[in-house]
Structure formats: structure tokens, C-alpha cells
Amino acid sequence: MVHFNTSFTALNLAKLDVQHQHQGQDPLVFSMASVKRRALNHHLLERFIVN
Questions:
Q1: Total-model pTM
Q2: Which one of 1, 15, 28, 42 is separated from 35 by 20 to 30 angstroms, measured CA to CA?
Q3: What tens digit of pLDDT does each residue of 9-34 get?
Q4: 3-state helix vs strand vs coil in the chain, percent to 5
Q5: CB 32 within 8 A of CB 11
Q6: d(CA 43, CA 14)
Q7: Which of 49, 36, 44, 43 is nearest to 10 (CA)?
Q8: Among 34, 1, 2, 40, which residue's Cα sits nearest to residue 17?
């Protein structure tokens, strides 16, 4: 049951982050794949800068 709650918590936090970043009149479209890709790109960019 803990894994189930943890996965929904992560999903809800990701949705909340997307809502806070959303600007404009466009309808809000949420994709967990986009959130994961953005996080990976950020992580890789930070690694490149450090190295």
C-alpha cells in the first residue's frame, strides 16, 4: 500500500509543479513523460556543467 500512495503522491506533486509553471491562455496539458524528460535533461545539464 505504501508504494501505491507514494506513486500517487509523486504524480500529484508533478501535476502541481506543471500547474505552477503554466502560463497563458492555452489549456493545461499534463504528461508524466514530459516531466520525466525535463527532469533528466536538467540532471544531465547539471552533470555537464560540473564536469
A1: 0.70
A2: 1
A3: 999 999 999 999 888 888 988 999 99
A4: 75, 0, 25
A5: yes
A6: 16
A7: 36
A8: 34
